Amino acid sequence: MFGFGLVIEPQLWTLLFVMIRVGAALIAAPVFGNVSVPLPVRVALSSAIAVLVLGTNTIQAPAEIFTLTTIMAVVAEALVGLALGFVLQIAFAAPLVAGEIIGGAMGIGFANMIDPNSGRSSPAIGQFLSIMLTLLFLSLDGHLVLVDMIVRSYRALPPGAAWLGAGQFRDIAFFGGYAFLAGLLLALPVGFLLLCLNLVMGMLSRSAPALNLFAIGLPASLAVGVVSIAIAFPAMGDYLQVIVREALAAAQSLVLA
């Protein structure tokens, strides 16, 4: 029994070493990193993917545990995993930006609800678009593509040589602007119609100063906003698919390049 423990101990250490990158990616990635996902489920998924990695790659874990070299290797593994998930998380912030723009133009910017992804309050419209993006992410097998990228990352960035360069960190930081650009383009159809409505209401206020704009403008903004969202939703759905594909492509090009 004692000899069996000596044999299996290196394999368990190798499994735990592989789970560091996998677990960090799942924590930072959308869907897997939701606060509603229990910790035992994340650990089970990390261990299952780690077994898959060990079956397809030859991983050599550090021989000693409590050394500076091992600590640096663990930090490097965690950074690679966090970078993979963080790039996807940036793109998933686009619906929240679009919800802020649309909600403010409709006059319901105060309508917030709890975001199950982060546990914080977010605009109701942004939450609706975020749920649609999550469903499209799953329907397009984005979660499977993420798992495939995690497995392939051990070939592109093998343990021991997994440090991200300064250029990769810079590109990941610059990719943060994509969330604002994608959110603006996602809200553009509805925002344009609401802008036209505001222009009309402004002209009415100048031509009829006695008109109560609060009694007319808010219901009109709500009605036009709901109708415009219903009309523009097919185009918004197509662009949500573009966001999913761009996020997966960016995660591969920025981290695994």
From TrEMBL:
Keywords: Bacterial flagellum, Cell membrane, Cell projection, Cilium, Flagellum, Membrane, Transmembrane, Transmembrane helix. The lineage of its organism: Bacteria, Pseudomonadati, Pseudomonadota, Alphaproteobacteria, Sphingomonadales. The gene is fliR. Belongs to the FliR/MopE/SpaR family. Role in flagellar biosynthesis. It is a multi-pass membrane protein. This is Flagellar biosynthetic protein FliR. It is found in: Cell membrane; Bacterial flagellum basal body. The chain crosses the membrane at residues 12-32, 39-59, 65-88, 95-114, 126-151, 172-201, 213-235. InterPro entries: FliR, T3SS_IM_R. Its main location: membrane. It comes from the Bacteria.
